[in-house]
Amino acid sequence: MKSIDDIFSLFGSERRRFALYYLKHANGSVSIDELAEEIYTWEESESNEEIPSDEFRRVILTLEHNHLPKIEGATHVEYDRTNDRLRITGLSAEADVLLSVTEAMEQPSRADDFVLGRLGKP
Predict the structure, then answer these.
(1) Is pTM, for the whole model, over 0.90?
(2) Per-residue pLDDT for 84 more than 70?
(3) pLDDT score, position 114
(4) Which site among 26, 36, 49, 104 is 20 to 30 Å from 17 CA-CA?
(5) How far apart are the first and last CA of the chain?
(6) What residues does each domain of the chain span?
């Protein structure tokens, strides 16, 4: 098990948590662009507007230089830099539980019924 400090550090950034939520539910690998678009949409309260190119680039840069290296070092995430694709290959049981709980708190529409029930949410 990773130390509890490592796990909480991993979840200490909203953008990193959003990346983990998306990777956890993805079927296979996803592109950096796809991940950045989804994160931007979540951060902007699911806005349907087109993403301004400067904002899109900013999300990609923070992912590539800050969040993805931290995720990659703390979890089983494969990051193919040649093709700009990533996929999650596993989380520790502790990290998986915490990820499910934080997702249910931040994005209840995506959470599973078991976690919502445990949190007392309908």
Answers:
(1) no
(2) yes
(3) 53
(4) 49
(5) 32
(6) 4-92
Q: In the chain, which residue ranges form alpha helices assigned H by DSSP?
A: 4-10, 14-25, 32-43, 53-62, 68-74, 93-106, 113-118
Confidence of residue 62 (pLDDT cuts 50, 70, 90): very high
Cβ atoms 103, 18 nearer than 8 A: no
Pairwise CA distance, residues 17 & 38, whole Å: 12
68 half-sphere exposure, CB direction, 13 A CA radius = 24
**Buried/exposed 27-45: b ≥16 CB within 10 Å, e otherwise:** eebbebeebbbbbbebeee
CA dist., res. 67 & res. 37, Å (int): 15
